[in-house]
User: Fold this.
Amino acid sequence: MQSDAPETRRLKRRLDALYARYNRRDLVETDPLGFLYRYDDPADREVVGLVASALAYGRVALIRKNVEWVLQPMGRPALFLKKASKAELEERFRGFRHRFTGGRELTALLMGIKRVNERHGSLKGCFLAGLRAEDETTLPALERFAEELALAGERQAAFLLTSPADGSACKRMNLFLRWMVRKDAVDPGGWEEVGARRLVIPLDTHLFRICRALGLTHRKQANLRAALEITESFRALAPKDPIKYDFAISRLGILREAGLNEFLESCGILEARHDGKSAS
Assistant:
């Protein structure tokens, strides 16, 4: 995508308008991200962010219900994990179930967080330990971060800790990084040292369909290569913050007043189809 092309300038204007309209703090409350704003301590936000993003698959209402169930007995999550033993966590969350995730996997995730915090002082410290100055994206550090968390949880939470190593888009882990690294009306930030310019789009099938319709990728699967291609397309529009439009675009089709067809038409796309294929 050429940054000075007329169609690129038009797309940027439309995306900036979409960002101004939907990148709002009041819309966060219906998103799993909303849980982070209950906590002022960065250590608590890290724990909550990783739990909420790890469970961010399926219907939003179910995600929020089950994240609420996990967080309710914790009080201050970082302190709770610091004091809790593995046996106590197993007992506390024995009855947990979120689609493919049960109490065993949740306990493994929480133990992974606990042990990484003990080793590095914080999840941020762990991530920064794996981040190199020459890394163009967060993916190499994310691979090391996911591996350390998986090992710390005795590899029983592998499904919840997607890694670039397997070629998947790593939607949930990239979503966690968006929350932690970016800071604006929606994303609370706290890991600004990582650099928003290195983030990769949290790609799911809904966003993938929209981005294909907009011509931001021509790939046929919502995998890691597609996520990188889409991120590069966005980088032509916002070099220092390539995933700034993620939250606003994700509102299309979620909010009743956010019309996907109307947005695509305003960008020069005449027809939007919802059968998994890109618009013609």
About this structure: The chain has a mean pLDDT of 91. The chain has 13 helices and two strands. The first strand starts at residue 97 and ends at 98.
